């Protein structure tokens, strides 16, 4: 069984600033569970100009208490494989846990691109750190950036009941985590901007 | 933010600083449009080589390399 989740988050900042913040996302005040972050492979394809990056993260395991006592999961290793095309301004990341992947695999795809309103697409405007969302929609064209998130959860444990519960937990966790993650990213965007202005 | 192994963190910081500058000043400004081929600057590449060697040593020590290879199996970019 696979559970799916989709969402679009909107940032009132240009693509260049959002992608720069993604490279420098940790630490931030909303990501204390992220313990380490590393670029483990990176190259630019000389023909396409696309920047290929692989990052490895260590995060504190976030299984529910009942599952933690069964599976003894403390830390999780997360792999992010990405392609950034600077000419077309698209940045695609695919992130998944590589430890305990048979227990529960959460794979999240994010596509970061300049925001062009799409028909019937629901978006969540990520507020500035001070809480303001004012004029977000008014300046959206060409200035704002959308992160389109899709995720799937697969559990392969043999116990049907445990599998169902883990998948349900994973799906609800993704929803909560993606929002928190975007708010954390907003902290980094604003911090980078402050530092740039201070120079 | 710490690296996987504490001894790699200073190498990581040096590389990240170099990369950020290259990303903002070269890649995003389109320095590679036209005939010039996109490459990471020699300076950043050198810092990355040192940092990468350190972090991969830690990956192997912690036995995460098999997990990484397993995850990359379906990825055409990393097919051996």
TrEMBL record, chain A:
Domain of life: Eukaryota
PROSITE patterns: PRELI_MSF1
GO cellular component, one term: mitochondrial intermembrane space
Start and end residues of each PRELI/MSF1 domain: 2-197
Name of the protein described by the UniProt record: PRELI/MSF1 domain-containing protein
UniProtKB/TrEMBL annotation, chain B:
Keywords in alphabetical order: Disulfide bond
Recorded superkingdom: Eukaryota
Keyword Cytoplasm among record annotations: no
Family matches, as Pfam families: UPF0203
Keyword Disulfide bond in record: yes
GO cellular component, one term: mitochondrial intermembrane space
InterPro entries: MDM35_apoptosis
BP terms from Gene Ontology: phospholipid translocation
GO molecular function, one term: phosphatidic acid transfer activity
Similarity comment: family membership: Belongs to the TRIAP1/MDM35 family.
Protein name: Mitochondrial distribution and morphology protein 35
Organism: Chytriomyces confervae
Classification of source organism: Eukaryota, Fungi, Fungi incertae sedis, Chytridiomycota, Chytridiomycota incertae sedis
